[in-house]
Design a protein that fits this description.
There is one protein chain. With about 120 residues, this protein is mainly β. Strands 1, 2, 3, 4, 5, 6, 7, 8 and 9 form a nine-stranded antiparallel beta sheet that branches.
């Protein structure tokens, strides 16, 4: 598990994927799986005039689902809003299968993922 405290956009929420913005010199909401560098693990908080938060860059994490997730889970992709979806092309990890006796996971739910 790789956890890092970083400078980030103050509007990010727990479970959103992030990427590095070379213009703003901070982490911002990710728009696709090719630029993903982590998922927000702790919401941004202010430190000496900068917004800082915690991201997970590898291992098990929680992410916001951008669409309904099938019971068998699948390859992790990221939609244009920085949320977890099933990928049909490239994968940056896995979305956990639905645990026994648990409700279906729908868009907006937090899902368990594994980042590689």
């Amino acid at each position: 598990m790789l956890i890092t405290e970083v400078k980030m956009n103050q509007n990010l929420v727990v479970g959103e994927f992030v990427q590095w913005d070379t213009q703003q010199l901070m982490f911002v909401r990710c728009t696709d799986h090719m630029n993903m560098l982590g998922v927000v693990d702790q919401a941004p908080y202010e430190v000496n005039g900068s917004w800082v938060g915690v991201i997970r860059q590898a291992g098990v994490a929680s992410a916001i689902a951008g669409a309904d997730i099938p019971a068998d889970g699948g390859a992790l992709g990221i939609d244009a809003n920085g949320r977890a979806i099933i990928s049909t092309d490239h994968s940056c990890g896995l979305i956990q299968a639905q645990p026994f006796n648990q409700p279906a996971r729908v868009a907006g739910d937090l899902v368990v993922i594994w980042l590689r």
